[in-house]
Specification:
By secondary structure, this protein is α+β, with helices and mostly antiparallel strands. It is built from five helices and eight strands. It has a four-stranded antiparallel sheet, with helices on both faces. The longest helix is centred in the first third of the chain and has 28 residues. It starts with 6 loop residues before the first helix and ends in an 11-residue tail after the last strand.
Length: 183
């Protein structure tokens, strides 16, 4: 079945369609990029004072004191993102390091049986999710990340009742895996 439009109506649609498309794009683009602001920011250079770090990166989600008088600032990408940036500030108040910590290489530095919740927080920041495993009575912190920069994964850090890391298990992130979706 063919619908015929009035010639004047067709002309009006042709004139307004590009304007509406441009308006939609101008509204959608800032919203889309707003979620990526953390990714688009230029990190401050090593040696930058704390005030400059916070001026460039904003207020951190959390700050963790270090034994040497410095601190680690958490710039969160969790719970939905696959990144978490940590800025290490030395005792002199200057930036020592700024890194994306949710990587396979960084997870490999965890010392099973030795690290505790404070060590994990100071290294990786807050998790995307927390849960429990009843069989061992473990608390589980889960972090979203891109394994090998490719696979949508979650690293699950299991703590015993004393808060000591007992195991780490990675697997697919159910948020991105159709096998875990209800149909």
């Amino acid at each position: 079945m063919t619908y015929l439009l009035d010639p004047m109506l067709r002309a009006a649609v042709r004139r307004t369609a590009p304007v509406l498309a441009a308006l939609s794009l101008s509204l959608a683009l800032p919203l889309a990029l707003g979620g990526c602001a953390q990714l688009l920011r230029q990190p401050p250079p090593a040696g930058a004072p704390l005030a400059e770090v916070q001026a460039r990166l904003g207020t951190p989600r959390a700050a963790y004191p270090l034994a040497d008088g410095g601190q680690v600032l958490e710039y969160a990408g969790q719970p939905m993102g696959q990144f978490q940036h940590m800025a290490t500030i030395g005792a002199d108040g200057r930036l020592v390091a700024y890194e994306q910590v949710l990587t396979s290489e960084k997870f490999a530095t965890v010392k099973i049986g030795r690290w505790n919740k404070d060590d994990i927080l100071r290294t990786f920041g807050h998790p995307a999710e927390t849960s429990r495993v009843a069989f061992h009575d473990y608390e589980v912190w889960s972090y979203r990340y891109k394994e090998s920069g490719v696979w949508n994964s979650m690293m699950h850090v299991h703590f015993d009742q004393q808060g000591i890391v007992q195991q780490m298990i990675n697997g697919p992130d159910p948020m991105y895996d159709d096998r875990f979706r209800f149909r």
